Amino acid sequence: MDPEDLHLNLRNLEADDYPQLKILMDKVYDDIGGAWPLKTIKRLIKEFPEGQIAIVDDDILVGVALSALVDYDTFSERHRYDDLIGKNEIIHNDAAGDAMYGLDVLIDPEYRGHRLGRRLYEARKELCRSLNLQAILAGGRIPGYHEHADSLKPTEYIDEVARKEIHDPILSFQLSNDFQVKRLMRGYLPEDKKSLGYATLLEWNNILYEPEERLLESTKTQSRVGAVQWQMRRFASVEDVLEQVEYFVDALSDYQSDFAVFPELFNAPLMGLRDQSDDLEAIRFLSNFTDRFRSEMLRMAVSYNINIIAGSMIEEGDDGRLYNVAYLLRRDGTEERQAKLHITPQERRDWVIDGGEELQVFETDAGRVGILICYDVEFPELGRILADQDMDLLFVPFWTDTKNGYLRVRHCAQARAIENECYVVLCGSVGNVPSIENLDIQYAQSAVFSPSDFAFPHDAVLNETTPNTEMIFFSDLDYTRLKLVRSEGSVTNLKDRRTDLFSLKWRKKGKKSKK
């Protein structure tokens, strides 16, 4: 069959198609009884029309997928083909079913080689998602088994088919379409002599499925992130800084952002309100403003209905030690903290900053988020630990002075997005304040990164700012795409990890003292 002569169309099967369907089923199922009677097909079309999918070449029926709705808990266990068939060959279709059962897929032998079966399977998957069904189940014959029954047990045969050491015309196709073998079923279809009555229970899991009772309370599948590429400048007072912060929060809220993101140590210019001769005293002076900033920005989060990632600020603990801490200030009035874990040589040398000892993913009404402050993102173990807690979105507030320092953070942040199949928001500060120690130069180009696959931009960059310019920027994030890439992407980094060879474990320590 020359592909140029094909005029293929995918549509739902109709009762008028039965004469052609009978010919096709008799041809394909000549070894197990041939076609179902007209009444069976008519009833199936009436009760579940969307599940009966056909491919026609002009007006010629060349491919069909027949399906029924079933109860997942019942048919995900061992069963027989007869459990689907009632008296007078009427297929049991459960209108309240939460799973789809794949009854048959038939392709005209003259049209094989054109991947029509894959088209039908993809259509089934889309229907499963659109109907919010839990899975597609199927009892899969293994018609090649009779040729190997003398030397292989059924389970051994299935394993060798999975390893592609043996080709089975049905099981090999099912496995190539992302179905997983759940168990072996004995006596599934006794008249199937080629399979010796055996079948596999196959399942394709709908990762987007939401139980009905959870649909109304489920978290958003999309969110909008707004971030501030903040310019460091001289400020005359704390009020001046807070006024600038509120200006940006107001602007981001006007665009219905779910998050407002600020850079690392964005209020550092307040060190200019005192003498700069002692670095340690200057940074301790800055820590005196943290409680007020945290309180005021929490008020803004509630007032402007936006979750705020309050960059980071210097926090003095009850033990007198200093920490570089980011705050998640939720719009419902609750808050969380994430201390910087890895301290740069400059922070340790000039400011005597200590590293925190806790890392976690935070629940929000717009996704599960993690925070790694600047240098922390250069340690891949942290991103992976967060990914293991089902993180969707990673915030990286940063502060770098030179372009090479910025590029270290950028490249590592983009790597975290790819290897952990998540979104990463990189938010930094710009501007020069020569009169303040350690604020004399800065370089930033803030950005939002995605996994690198077909569902995302070709360069895996959703948005980025103009370098070294104060501005705000937005990105809309689709968490459904993350679920799909983790399950069905070109590569599946999280799923393919060799945990039989290596593991990653967080060592819990006692909490350091904090306010």
TrEMBL record:
UniProt superkingdom: Bacteria
Source species: Halopseudomonas salegens
Keyword list (alphabetical) reads: Hydrolase
GO molecular function terms noted in the UniProt entry: acyltransferase activity, transferring groups other than amino-acyl groups; hydrolase activity
For this chain, the family text in UniProt reads: Belongs to the carbon-nitrogen hydrolase superfamily. NIT1/NIT2 family.
Is Hydrolase a UniProt keyword of this protein?
Answer: yes
InterPro entries tied to this protein? Acyl_CoA_acyltransferase, C-N_Hydrolase, C-N_Hydrolase_sf, GNAT_dom, UPF0012_CS
Does the entry feature the keyword Transcription regulation, yes or no? no
Q: What protein does this entry describe?
A: Predicted amidohydrolase
List residues of the CN hydrolase domain: 223-479
The family database entries (Pfam families) matched by this protein are listed as: Acetyltransf_1 (PF00583), CN_hydrolase (PF00795)
